Amino acid sequence: MTKPPLTLYLAAPRGFCAGVDRAIKIVEMALKKWGAPVYVRHEIVHNKYVVDGLRELGAVFVEELDECPPDRPVIFSAHGVPKAVPAEAARREMVFVDATCPLVSKVHIEAERHHENGLQIVMIGHTGHPETIGTMGQLPEGEVLLVETEADVAGLEVRDPERLAFVTQTTLSVDDTAGIVRALTARFPKIVGPHKEDICYATTNRQESVKAMAGRIDAMLVVGAPNSSNSRRLVEVAERAGCSYAQLVQRATDIDWRALEGIRSIGITAGASAPEVLVNEVVDALKARYDVTVEMVETARENVEFKVPRVLREPA
Ligand code: 2E7
Ligand code: F3S
């Protein structure tokens, strides 16, 4: 039987960012240095395949520090942790390595600086997400107010509208965040913040390339996990940019083939925590059913790299 033709637009950049690459390396290097088990507080990055692979090597994933024995090393996930977490690890005299993405640490420092300048902070982020919890947890209770939507801005009760700053989660929708920042500056003209927001280069670039292809595809598959904020944003971006069907898939077995019936073109991207092997798996599944022509949609080139912490580097 002849296969139907399908043009497959492959987004670039897609998949792993520099922060994810570094965080995974930190776990691998810790396992080499200290042997198993090494504890990891929260999924190192939001991807089951990555987490399962590291578990196989001897990593033990927990949600809270009190689940770790005091005599084994613990690694904090790429999303960042409240200040109380390393403080408690130090109190228990634990060996700990912080795999927080440097671009998240930068936001933590930004928040602290505003606080030292006497400003109350508004964080734009998603309730309950570990990055939001970590960033808010850099400062005492009540010093960081969370908003998720433009509507939340109207309901904000601040200490002093003249003394405010804002920070953001790094994986938000660029367009939604611009709207929230506009609402904040309209209501609080004196509010200070970053030039635009704190969304990272990887989030911005992945959303851009999805926008570039969304208008010419019948469907979009985003390889990523349901708890991955940046991956979920890519599905929304595709839909909003005019793609009538977008699905988040953890791997090829998740593909809803009935929903794809009759398509002639498809876009594929991957969140910052999704490994390329899973993209290849999805591409191969499509090739098994369609006569595929691959086209790249490259909207940026990335050359960002972050060093692993000194304690884990091999001696020169
Ligand atoms: C850390 C940060 O693990 P992810 O899916 O995380 P999100 O925040 O998107 O749920 O992706 C990598 C990553 C992104 N941002 C890790 Cl702060
Ligand atoms: Fe860091 Fe952005 Fe990746 S904050 S972990 S570079 S998605």
From TrEMBL:
(2E)-4-hydroxy-3-methylbut-2-enyl diphosphate binds at H46, H79, H129, T170, S228, S229, N230, S273. Keywords: 4Fe-4S, Iron, Iron-sulfur, Isoprene biosynthesis, Metal-binding, Oxidoreductase. Its cofactor is [4Fe-4S] cluster. Pathway: Isoprenoid biosynthesis; dimethylallyl diphosphate biosynthesis; dimethylallyl diphosphate from (2E)-4-hydroxy-3-methylbutenyl diphosphate: step 1/1; Isoprenoid biosynthesis; isopentenyl diphosphate biosynthesis via DXP pathway; isopentenyl diphosphate from 1-deoxy-D-xylulose 5-phosphate: step 6/6. It is an enzyme of class 1 (oxidoreductase). The active site is at E131. [4Fe-4S] cluster binds at C17, C101, C200. Dimethylallyl diphosphate binds at H46, H79, H129, S228, S229, N230, S273. Catalyzes the conversion of 1-hydroxy-2-methyl-2-(E)-butenyl 4-diphosphate (HMBPP) into a mixture of isopentenyl diphosphate (IPP) and dimethylallyl diphosphate (DMAPP). Acts in the terminal step of the DOXP/MEP pathway for isoprenoid precursor biosynthesis. Belongs to the IspH family. This is 4-hydroxy-3-methylbut-2-enyl diphosphate reductase. It comes from Pseudooceanicola nanhaiensis. The gene is ispH.
